[in-house]
Amino acid sequence: MTKIVKHSISLACLFLCCGFVIIKNKELLFDYPEYWPKPNYNFSKLSMTEDEFQLGRHLFYDPILSKDNTISCASCHLQATGFTHVDHDLSHGIEGRIGTRNSLSIMNLAWNSSFMWDGGVNHLEVQALAPISSANEMDESLEHVVEKLKASKKYNSLFYKVHNDSLITGQKTLLALTQFVVMLNSYNSKYDKYIRKEVGGEFTEQEKNGLNIFRNNCASCHKEPLFNSNDFKNNGLAVDATLNDYGRMMITKNTNDSLKFKVPTLRNIQFTQPYMHDGRFETIQEVITHYTSGIQHSKTLAKELENPLALTHKEKVDLLVFLRTLTDKEFLFNKRFSYPKDQ
Amino acid sequence: MFLLNFKLKYLIAILPLILTQVIFTKSYSQENKEDLNIVLVSKFGEEHILKDTWYITETKDSIQISKIKFYLTDFKIGSKRGKGQSINNSNHLIDVFDKNTLNIVLPNVDISTCNEVLFNIGVEEEMNTSGALSGDLDPSKGMYWSWQSGYINFKFEGKSPSCETRKNKFQFHIGGYQKPFTTTRPITILAKSIKDNTLTIILDFSKIFKSINLNSTNQVIIPGKEAFDLAEILPTLFSVDD
Question: From the list A174, A251, A252, which residue is nearest B132 (CB)?
Fold first, then answer.
């Protein structure tokens, strides 16, 4: 009898322990629609645990990453506006310093093969180094960020939860940020529901017409279903003489890349204004007008834009109405991605 | 049954032979695997190099050196018996003014069959495109560019009155993994220079100034043609005592 009791107790303990292990290391599922392409990002270095996601979330929203502890990633990447900076053509950093480009939105990053407007960053895990060390953004060094994190009780405990040791390194910091941002996926817009024939995805005639116009005029660069491409294109913007930004060429030193910039995603475009690498257009209407009548011809102009888009006023309106179906409120207001409550 | 018996007998007969072979091979290979110590000695011409000390270059420029940091990576041991040996995770950040970084230990090397030691100055392309790495390759070591991903393979900073720059500084941050301006350079050293399990490598930094004119070349801090040209000089810094 005692033997049975003993065995039962040990078994119960074993199950309890297993339970704790499972709860502690709750695995994250990287979920996306089955008809989407496979992501580019190789997840092997991430723990894919809730703890690492939460650590990354804390880091993303913490101004500790900037030199004077005033600016966090979220300062230029606000969730409600598709994780980008609105109301400023050029994003600004610490002490009101103004950068040279409009911040990009953050979503569906696992499908990108390079990062930043000029593709200068070759891997998602090292992307955060750029804003951290840029003088006009956070003006900090990863080395010093690690020192500050080491001195923080909160981060010692958060890193310990993920790695079971309290040694904070640059790599672990970058991986945690990656674990958070790689989960920022948007695939529940009205357009997505239309494609999946789900409730809430019923398109009006105008939206259907807008989708057709989009497919005939825009989709060769802004490819479905991500509405971007990993290419760099010169989309016919006149050079802003106050910036003299030649984009991709500044990275490759190849004159064939002059004036080429990343083809950004159009998902959640309704809220990601201003538009273009230098934020020169405040409204989507201005963007459409650029493609119909504002293209500047030069040697490296995208061949897709050699002839301007020919759209009637009604077609422009339909296109605009369609672009609004790319708004994904489940993503923009998902509480898992918002400012974390202190633990 | 007969067949089974025969097979079993045969197996029992050769088993001791196999075991002996296994034990012999194992002990033989263990006995011959030792630590190979690599000692880096930094010089400026004939003198030992010191931080912020005046030196005269061959082209008669006065200079002081404040920082020399570089990567030695991907060590391999060439063998007289065919296949060589790659040393795992042998990526080392060397700081000439931090003596703790000047001794590299390569573990489990078969020194008796070693005929050459190979390594790279700088970090290979694959590691430049693999995201955030750990150890000496951690991007927090100050040897990683942020605006254009990739390692700075070699950092060399100082000052000279010949440089018409702010505070007469010169700065060479040599890096870049993309063709045609790759800056990683392979080095091969013959094993006859190994003495008492130690390979002493001499680095003579005065050689950098043989090929450059400090008046015109004093700030190279991005990948490109100039960084490529400087990278071509780097292997000439390495030598061993005969």
Answer: A174
